[in-house]
Design brief:
Structural class: alpha+beta
Shape: elongated
Largest sheet: 6 strands, mixed
Strand content: 15-25%
Oligomer: single chain
Distance between the termini: 36 Å
Helix content: 40-55%
Number of strands: 8
Number of helices: 8
Radius of gyration: 18 Å
Mean pLDDT: 80
Strand order of the largest sheet: 1-2-6-3-5-4
Length: 214
């Protein structure tokens, strides 16, 4: 199995190249762990003003067919809501993406990301909207889904299923914050204080699976 840390460093390098000028001024990636166990990887590149980041969770690799429907629901809810939380945030199967014009905007967006993962807006309204999206594609047969994603499997899912899945995949000890762009590792570490204050709660009935550790 490939080491996710090595993959994350490779992602950082690629993102650095993406935002560089013809002559990239990129330094060797720096990696360290926060107190809550999250790994931070920073690839400083002064050849651009932009800063790009991906917050990924190793738990998403524990994909099993019977979880396909709830995984799709969570993906849709995050995709729909993150741009409303902050314009720099977006979501893909790889994780939560952050694209900032500069270091100051990165700090603001990272704070917004920290707040959101602490208390994601998994509501009945959001769930219903996500279900409607999947069911419309199933009906139109215009999108590929895993065999286990059917009208019945989607309709049977409850908000507790969404919360339980989120709890299973989101864990700071298996999380990687990869940052690339014109920002110093020390500054990222300072900005990451909000994420560093997040831990996992053992209360599986809670709708918030990350709790602030103030």
């Amino acid at each position: 199995m490939k080491n996710l840390k090595n993959i994350s460093i490779a992602i950082a390098l690629l993102l650095s190249v993406q935002f560089s000028f013809a002559q990239s001024v990129m330094k060797e990636p720096v990696s360290y762990k926060l107190k809550n166990g999250m790994t931070v990887i920073v690839a400083e590149n002064s050849g651009t003003q932009k800063v790009f980041s991906v917050l990924s969770f190793e738990g998403t690799n524990k994909y099993v067919a019977e979880k396909a429907a709830v995984q799709e629901l969570v993906n849709i809810i995050l995709t729909q809501q993150l741009p409303e939380i902050h314009k720099s945030l977006s979501f893909t199967d790889r994780g939560i993406n952050l694209a900032a014009a500069n270091a100051d905007e990165f700090e603001d967006a990272l704070a917004a990301m920290s707040t959101y993962i602490t208390a994601p807006h998994f509501t009945e309204e959001a769930l219903a909207k996500a279900k409607a999206d999947i069911l419309s594609h199933i009906s139109a047969q215009d999108k590929y889904y895993a065999e286990s994603i059917t009208t019945l499997s989607v309709q049977n899912l409850k908000l507790n299923d969404v919360n339980a899945y989120y709890s299973a995949i989101v864990n700071p000890t298996t999380a990687y914050l990869t940052v690339a762009g014109n920002i110093k590792p020390a500054l990222v570490k300072s900005y990451a204080k909000a994420i560093n204050q997040i831990k996992v709660t053992d209360d599986q009935s809670s709708k918030t699976y990350f709790v602030a550790n103030y």
